[in-house]
Write a structure and sequence with these properties.
heterodimer; A: 335 residues; mainly alpha; B: 433 residues; alpha/beta; globular
Chain lengths: 335, 433
Amino acid sequence: MTVSQDSVRMSVAASPHVAAKENVTHIMLWVVGALAPAALWGVWNMGVVAAVLLVSCIGSCLGTEALWNYLAKRPQTLLDGSALVTGLLLAMALPPRTPWWIGVAGGIVAIALAKMIFGGLGWNLFNPALVGRAIVSISWAGVLAESSVPGGWFAGLDMPGTGNFDAISGATRLALAAADRAAGGAYAYDMQAQYGPLLTRNLSGCLGEVSGGLLILGGLVLILKGIIDWRIPAGYIGTVALLSWAFGSDPVFNVLAGGVLLGAFFMATDYVTSPMTKTGRLIFACGCGLINVVGRFFGPMPESTTFAILFMNGFVPLIDRSLRPRTFGWGSRRG
Amino acid sequence: MAKAGFRGGVHPPTHKDVTSASATHRAPIPARLVLPMSQHLGAPCTPLVAAGDRVLRGQPIGDVEAMVSAPVHSPVAGEVAAVTSRRTITGNSVTAVEIVPDPEQDFDTFEKIDPVDNVVTLVRSAGIVGMGGAAFPAHVKLTPPKDATIETVILNGCECEPYLTCDHRTMLERASRVVEGSRIIARTVGARRIVIGIEDNKPDAILAVREAADTDIEVLSLQTSYPQGAEKQLIWAVMAKEVPHGKLPSAAGALVHNVGTAAAIADAVLDRRPLMERVVTVSGMVARPGNYLTLLGTSVQDLLDAAGGFTGEVGRVIAGGPMTGMPVVDFSVPVVKGTSGVVALAPGDLPPAVHGDQPCIRCGRCSDACPMLLEPFALGIRANRLDWDGCDSYHGLDCIECGCCSYVCPTHRPLVQLIRRAKHALLERGARS
């Protein structure tokens, strides 16, 4: 066969002429896939209200982004999957019985005020899902506190802690541990007894906290797939464990309880709002763990993950500027 | 012990097994050869022949007095049809000598280059340039700066570009010439150590070269990773030395030549043979992919026809490898001294077409992949804003344009393309000031 140049419709571009298959949508879908088991297990245990929360958060994020793009006459960006991840993470970070309209408000804040106003994907300083959660948790603190209490359907089912004490308070295990600590150990709260339920089926806390085990599993999948850098969860969780132990609390309990797992594997690892260098990521992660633990033991509320990560997000530009890699051929030779 | 390599890099599918197992064979004699007077970096040659002249195989048809240049020889016996301006692979039009070959060719005989004792002169007379693709005149590299001491001669047998196997075949089929070439180079520059670096995905080539070499030559198996064959990365892998910013490899005591160039140097010195043909890998969407011993001046069209034409829809034809090669827009352009491959890619092989400015999601993949330890994301953002000072402060001029950053970018930002533009602007500005 003779080649005819006219028979082929050529495209011309500068090198390289090949690209890796992994694109932003694949990455986002892997994150969704890694979160899905924990989310579905949460819905299974928490019922229809949790499903409504998921739908309202995700729908609100997608809708806000689509509307913003439309009004700003920008190309639509929903297919990159990042708004889906933000919506999912926002729902996971809220109590399962959060009213749907709070989910919607959180989604609007996350996308409009924390992402699109900065220029969209890649330009935001703070994690959008956490900004959404932070704003609604301040705005409707009372409503959200009530939302943590498991409702009638689940009364008597695996209440946290031991006996009536927990059923009456309905508080999270972290709050119980804090109350026990404040009372000088008067309640004799058994933190080791909480490992099992925290890993498998924890009905007090956020939707994403129902199963720590599934979060760890999802996080490990992302690490093995090379989607997230192990340094962030390792640095974060390691710091939380070490400091909790130093402050005289149970390190494993402090890693499993509250938002640490969701934060360390899925929130602090957000590309846009974490450092670019490996050392930077480790410093960032240790900072998150430090603030999380300090907030937990000495702050006004034990659930300090959100603010720990948001606080460290603010340091990312500084970390990146301070730890620029030494260009090959510049300065001292290594090896 | 960990295998020698470098930091960063990518691992694109190699597609090398398509062509690596079949022996090199000669492409048919085309009806007409087009020999550009500029097949190298440096001053273009002046034609030494005119339309109607008879030429012999190996006869010089273009030369110039300049130091950084290389003469051009006729690869065939035939008649000069024209001396005109012709388009080349780069898209530029240059003066070219068009030759109609005689139908019968004796490839075993050729006009020998003038006998001289000086290797540098011989190599220049033979018209040898870097055959890995850079096409820098070889004799210039054999004349290192006076104040430099070359400790180590490194032959580059990495061939890290996907699809290409011409160096692989050369190492298998002409191992003794490769080895002999390395000895000639080392003698010429006074180097004591000779290392031939080959990626570990070519164990048969490593074996063949080891067999041909004596104890005076180290044959080093290197990590298979793109761009292991980039000069600075190869020097690092072999010598654990960084070529300082803005300096030549001689500053690190190294001289690097491609294995194909070394074989050509051996041919020039031992046989007084000028450079008239080269091995070209033709691969991708062609019926008979393989390595073709190709007369310089053969058109891409003739070579594609020799390979049996396309087997399906083709989205782009590349001269060279897909990571750094040039798209061929006009199939009538000729194969030149630096053309290592002609690769026909299917539309699905190409990076997806992107429209408008794609966001950087700060994933860090480009920084992890950059073998120069640059931050391509930061350079890309600054180049996009035409912030050349910013590009300079992020060491944009150190970019070797290997394309790893663009390759890995999950939003397909044209990073190396943006950095290339910044380098161009910075060099232009530097030249003006």
